[in-house]
Amino acid sequence: MHGPRLDGRNSVSLVPATLEHFKQYVPWMLQPEVGRFWGPRFGEMTDERQEERFKKTAEDPTQISWTIAYKEEPVGFTGIFDIDWVRRDGESGIFIGRHDLFGRGIASEAVRLRTDFAWRELRLHRVHNWIALANRGSRRANEKSGYQQMGLYRKSFFRSGEWYDEWLGEAFPHTFPDQG
Amino acid sequence: MALGGTIRGKTTTLRLPTDADLETYNDWMADMRVRRAHRVWNEPAMPATWKERLKATAKEKMDVLWSIDVGGRLVGFATGSFWSPTEPGFTVRQFVIAPDDWRKGFGFDAALALHRYLFDYLDLRRAGVEIRADNVAGLRIADRLGYVEYARGHEVYYRDGAYVDDVQLFMGIDAWRERWGATEREYAPLPADATR
Fold this sequence. Notes:
Radius of gyration of chain B: 17 Å
Order of helices and strands of chain B: EEEHHHEEEHEHEEH
Distance between the termini of chain A: 29 Å
Strand order of the largest sheet of chain A: 1-2-3-4-5-6-8-7
Oligomer: heterodimer
Number of strands of chain A: 8
Helix content of chain B: 25-40%
CATH architecture of the domain at 2-128 in chain B: 3-Layer(aba) Sandwich
Radius of gyration of chain A: 16 Å
Structural class of chain B: alpha+beta
Low-confidence stretches of chain A: none
Number of strands of chain B: 9
Shape of chain A: globular
Helix content of chain A: 25-40%
CATH class of the domain at 2-128 in chain B: Alpha Beta
CATH topology of the domain at 2-128 in chain B: Aminopeptidase
Distance between the termini of chain B: 40 Å
Number of helices of chain B: 6
Order of helices and strands of chain A: EEHHHEEEHEHEE
Number of helices of chain A: 5
Low-confidence stretches of chain B: none
Largest sheet of chain B: 9 strands, mixed
């Protein structure tokens, strides 16, 4: 499913993704500037495949997906995936594709909107995720919305001569900070 | 999933699943003892649906399904997923032993054989598994194999009116070699003159 529009602070919004957004995701994901904590920078990255992914996302009842907009421009995506509606648990993820906008608090606000939606609208019980331990920006963005460490996966991947550990986090409604 | 071939343990054999196994799979998925110990691999369904599932399973590339036999009798099944072309690992997704065959050592024997295949035959670097915190038998098998806990998800599974934690475990090839490398080999060492 594509999530509804959620307007946040500092010109950050979560908006339902369009096919054009999905096509925009491809060049973002292939850049070395965003690849340090991301995937292998190859794959079936064609417009046709993105159309399939877009349709599949729309039809999939186990995920809620959004494009992140900053000042009404798409800058990344986020969502809650593999939702188990009996356990009321899902895995969250976020990707900021515009590396020139890192450090502006966009991810923090996107995570806050997403997490608030998980508790107030979806009535989920728990959301969990994996984040590279060294990706302090993403980890901090999630911690601000109540994610807490539940484990550490040592030597998860190897880049540029170094092992990277992964931080495993989980959040519950009761760990979500009071928004006042 | 792909369908897995023969892996021999001491008492159990992981083997190619067949249509004849599906009715028993269906019975296990409807058994509350199994459902409380594991996630449900597939919900109970009509025989035709199970046949379609097996056919679809055979076409998958990154996942594998095995039936587990003891003396020609079906006693369980195992499924898992290879990680990716750049990550040589395997996650055990389901490891079901028929409730009437619990506490006979079949689970450990089959699990040891499967991991020998993963590390000694396929040369994978890592294996992972998630086990419910109240699945004592599953946790004991994992511990004997050499898995270590790296994370614990709180209140993850819901069954019997309450949540239970999720224990996430990992084993690397070094741990496998240290514990099992001397005794568990798919093949004996090549003779010295084998390549002459």
